[in-house]
Amino acid sequence: MLLSTILFNAFATLTSALPTTLSERAGGPSTKPIPDTCKLSDPHEQTASAPSDFIPAPSVKSVELYAAYYPSPSSNTTQMAQQCLEQCYGYGTSIECKGAFWAENMVVPPGYYGSPGGQLETACVFYTRALTEADFEEAPEGQGTGAYARNIAC
Ligand SMILES: *[C@@H]1O[C@H](CO)[C@@H](O)[C@H](O)[C@H]1NC(C)=O
Predict the structure, then answer these.
(1) d(Cα 35, Cα 32) in Å, to the nearest integer?
(2) Which site from 25, 29, 76, 80 is most exposed, i.e. has the minimal number of CB atoms within 10 Å?
(3) pLDDT band at 2 (very low <50, low <70, confident <90, very high)
(4) Angle formed at CA 92 by CA 68 and CA 123, multiple of 5 degrees
(5) Measuring from atom 6 of ligand 1, which residue has the nearest CA?
(6) How large a percentage of the chain has pLDDT more than 70?
(7) What is the pTM of this model?
(8) Residues lining ligand 1, judged by CB closer than 6 Å?
(9) Are strands 99-107 and 136-138 parallel, antiparallel or unpaired?
(10) Where is this region: Disordered (predicted)?
(11) What residue ranges do the domains of the chain occupy?
């Protein structure tokens, strides 16, 4: 897994200017349709006062399974978020990724594949456990646009 992540990373860096989708990049988790027998839940819907643009809180970093940052390949945010979720299901043997987060305008972490980071890109992040409301915080102005989070239980 680590090796494939590194390879994916190197390749993603090389191709970051190209309008490919995440799944088309070598080594990235491929999408896999989520069967109806799996239950999807929205961990961010649990409180009415939740802000619409949100980001993962720093504490959830410890249960991060995989993260990709890339320029949005499309203007269809619904489609991109769905693709991220299907990549979560497509990761490994479909049991590793329990929750996924997707948003535009996410700060690329310093050191992401050796880059200085800091710029805003689209993010797709997978987690090893189901997410809860407490795993998120309100996004700074202009960040976490269109944030989407789902847990997958199969
Ligand atoms: C965006 O993608 C979704 C899911 O693939 C699709 O149903 C919808 O028609 C698309 N919207 C536009 C405006 O293309």
Answers:
(1) 9
(2) 76
(3) very low
(4) 15
(5) 79
(6) 79
(7) 0.81
(8) 76, 78-79, 82
(9) unpaired
(10) 22-53
(11) 2-153
